[in-house]
């Protein structure tokens, strides 16, 4: 005999409320729809209806952190602007640098920028970042542990820290009149900078690529000393200075690659980084013909004086 409950009216399943942003994974086909026509089945096929009329993306100015004021006249801030990728300028272990044009369609308003993009978690990070990070802290112990253990989350945090540190240092130094690229904006791990080069996209050469004659060498040396003294007035040193992270554009020396900028007083290894920067640059200039009187000890003594530090050890012996 059947169970009497089998003859009761079956319970109705409650239909889930449908929202406007629900995605219909089974689109209805009209009587004339070709089942092989992917464009009719997937509205994402082809051109993005929300994309810019030209270029690769809408300008990321809105929502990013901006550089110091007053903004240079060449900075494009219009919401209608679009960004176009023009190629790779440099690849590195920690970041790649791309050439990007930001322009307002239909107008002559355009500018070139260097887009420095720090690598994500699955890529190698700074090989000596422990020394540079001394004195930099985050509030949450969980984040400190993640960075110390180099977990995926920790490496993402480190990438963001490097981008943020370089952006802050460039803004501070640019405002102080030091010869560095203007930092246009930072958004996550992407840093947009003033492009140092020509209007047709040719990047300025690095100091290491040049063989300056004696007058030019002397002029570049004085520009370098002025830049290092400008850093010292802010209590900083580059931390990894060499002829490869100095650009020369139309006779002007420009410091680049400052994510590891070091607080000379706040970082226990600060004086050692300062001494290394001075030694490497003085040796390069002397090797290329500068008088040996402009040695590492002389330069380091000047920097110590600017920083309010005692003379460098051995300075009196030179």
TrEMBL record:
Protein name as it appears in the record: non-specific serine/threonine protein kinase
Basic and acidic residues bias (residue ranges): 18-47, 54-64
Enzyme class, UniProt record, top EC level: transferase
Residues in RIO kinase domain copies: 56-305
EC number(s) recorded for this UniProt protein: 2.7.11.1
SUPFAM superfamilies: Protein kinase-like (PK-like)
Organism: Pseudonocardia yunnanensis
Keywords carried by this UniProt record: ATP-binding, Kinase, Magnesium, Metal-binding, Nucleotide-binding, Serine/threonine-protein kinase, Transferase
Keyword Transcription regulation belongs to the record: no
Record region (Disordered): 1-64
The organism's taxonomic lineage, starting at the top: Bacteria, Bacillati, Actinomycetota, Actinomycetes, Pseudonocardiales
Entry keyword annotation includes Kinase: yes
Molecular function terms, GO-annotated: kinase activity
Catalytic activity: L-threonyl-[protein] + ATP = O-phospho-L-threonyl-[protein] + ADP + H(+); L-seryl-[protein] + ATP = O-phospho-L-seryl-[protein] + ADP + H(+)
Family as reported in the entry's similarity comment: Belongs to the protein kinase superfamily. RIO-type Ser/Thr kinase family.
One Pfam family here: RIO1
InterPro entries: Kinase-like_dom_sf, RIO-type_Ser/Thr_kinase, RIO_dom, RIO_kinase, Tyr_kinase_AS
């Amino acid at each position: 005999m059947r169970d009497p409950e089998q003859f009761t009216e079956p319970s109705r399943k409650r239909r889930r409320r449908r929202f406007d942003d629900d995605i219909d994974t089974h689109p209805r086909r009209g009587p004339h729809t070709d089942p092989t026509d992917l464009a009719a089945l997937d509205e994402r096929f082809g051109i993005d209806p929300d994309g810019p009329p030209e270029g690769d993306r809408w300008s990321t100015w809105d929502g990013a952190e901006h550089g110091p004021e007053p903004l240079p006249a060449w900075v494009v801030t219009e919401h209608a602007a679009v960004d176009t990728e023009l190629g790779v300028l440099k690849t590195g272990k920690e970041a790649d640098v791309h050439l990007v044009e930001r322009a307002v369609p239909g107008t002559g308003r355009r500018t070139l920028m260097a887009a420095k993009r720090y690598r994500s978690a699955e890529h190698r990070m700074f090989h000596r970042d422990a020394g540079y990070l001394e004195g930099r802290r985050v509030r949450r112990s969980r984040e400190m542990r993640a960075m110390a253990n180099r977990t995926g989350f920790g490496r993402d945090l480190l990438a963001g820290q490097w981008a943020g540190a370089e952006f802050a240092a460039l803004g501070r130094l640019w405002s102080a009149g030091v010869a560095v690229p203007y930092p246009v904006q930072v958004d996550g791990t992407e840093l947009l900078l003033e492009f140092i080069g020509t209007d047709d996209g040719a990047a300025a050469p690095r100091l290491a690529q040049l063989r300056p004659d004696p007058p030019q060498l002397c002029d570049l040396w004085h520009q370098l000393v002025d830049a290092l003294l400008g850093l010292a007035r802010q209590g900083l040193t580059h931390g990894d200075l060499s002829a490869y992270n100095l650009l020369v554009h139309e006779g002007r020396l420009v410091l680049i690659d400052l994510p590891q900028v070091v607080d000379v007083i706040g970082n226990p290894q600060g004086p050692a980084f300062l001494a290394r920067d001075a030694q490497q640059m003085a040796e390069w200039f002397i090797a290329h013909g500068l008088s040996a009187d402009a040695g590492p000890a002389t330069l380091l003594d000047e920097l110590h004086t600017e920083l309010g530090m005692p003379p460098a050890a051995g300075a009196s012996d030179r």
